[in-house]
């Protein structure tokens, strides 16, 4: 017992020595021969591990928060974004945007196969998004109005490209009024009458010396140049269809058209929905095969910008180039015509063999190109853009007061393009009613010269009639290969 008490008395002293050596840690007795352990401060180890864990979770939280903000930013469109094609169903898409020169004419929908028209989203006024219209860069597109749906695309053309289009228009020849063809009952000035040779040259859009069906039908696309009546077109078209080769040379055209030409407006039957222009000259440039490579590039860019099937753009009317002199203007007007049971579209009237008494331009959308910058004046005005309602009796005569009362004016900037829809959607992916808010006019040009190019995409509100027209007029691969030889000879005109 005495030995035990002596041992117990020595234990506190030993314990104090061990605590001093361990730096305050509780010592654990070691077995004889065991390896000596390195004693560390428990508080130090625990705090460091805790800090590392907290920092890892903190960084993960920050990364997730940033990712969530970017996702919300992209979805809500609060800034610039890449505009994805809208898909409302089976939509026929255009070519790959990365291939600038790839523009084969797409095959038309087979019988019974329908397609829908994609439509760009405006989101809100001032919204910006990125669009790909050429293979090497993207362009910014800004929403200017929601009624009508109107966009601005700066840099659509370069300064050099605008100059080339103006030169091509001058080479084609600018005219003050649509050319006239004499009618026995109408007194037409001799200097305004066309010979058959001149008429053939105007009809031969790709200047290959032959008239194809597509060129005859394209003549009726626009009321601005409606200088042949439906009777004239039907006679020429019938002669072309009955010809064994399916094309007409100049001599064959003279035999077919001899004695049938007449001035269409005197004979009536055309929609009088045209705009009053003053101090301007204009011409039309074909954007299809056989034209200057820049004109085909413009067609490609319009296809990619609008995301419409390439066949719709290819079969639409030629681009109209207008040159305004000082003092020039155009009264407010709509580019398209309202649909009605007793009217038909000029571009499908002949192919559909329609018996409607009236014809009108059916232009789903407009792409206006500013080829140069006017010095003073020459703005395009949308007098009722984003109005709450459209009531003519309240608004008054805006055809001549569109600049004074205009809600939206856009100054001409060289290379800038404007895109707006002339029709609403019918809710099923097709053309609906005329958008009355698309009323617009060109303000008085007070100084300098202004050049513009208008590209219209023609779509019939009757979807079956549009698809039938495309099947009849579409270029087939064998025809395309034959005509490519002609196109190679006329790259600059």
UniProtKB/TrEMBL annotation:
Gene3D superfamilies on file: q2cbj1_9rhob like domain
Pfam family, one: 2OG-FeII_Oxy_3
Gene Ontology terms: cellular component: endoplasmic reticulum
SUPFAM superfamilies the UniProt entry points to: EF-hand
Keywords from the UniProt entry: Calcium, Dioxygenase, Iron, Membrane, Metal-binding, Oxidoreductase, Transmembrane, Transmembrane helix, Vitamin C
Membrane-spanning intervals of the chain: 49-74
Bias-annotated ranges (Basic and acidic residues): 96-107
Recorded superkingdom: Eukaryota
Signal peptide: none
Cofactor: L-ascorbate
Low complexity composition-biased segments: 337-348
UniProt GO MF annotations: iron ion binding; L-ascorbic acid binding; procollagen-proline 4-dioxygenase activity
Every Fe2OG dioxygenase domain range: 315-459
Residue segments, region Disordered: 80-115, 326-348
InterPro entries listed in its UniProt record: EF-hand-dom_pair, EF_Hand_1_Ca_BS, Oxoglu/Fe-dep_dioxygenase_dom, P4HA-like, Pro_4_hyd_alph, Pro_4_hyd_alph_FE2OG_OXY
PANTHER family: PROLYL 4-HYDROXYLASE ALPHA SUBUNIT, TRANSMEMBRANE PROLYL 4-HYDROXYLASE
Record protein name field: Fe2OG dioxygenase domain-containing protein
Organism: Danionella cerebrum
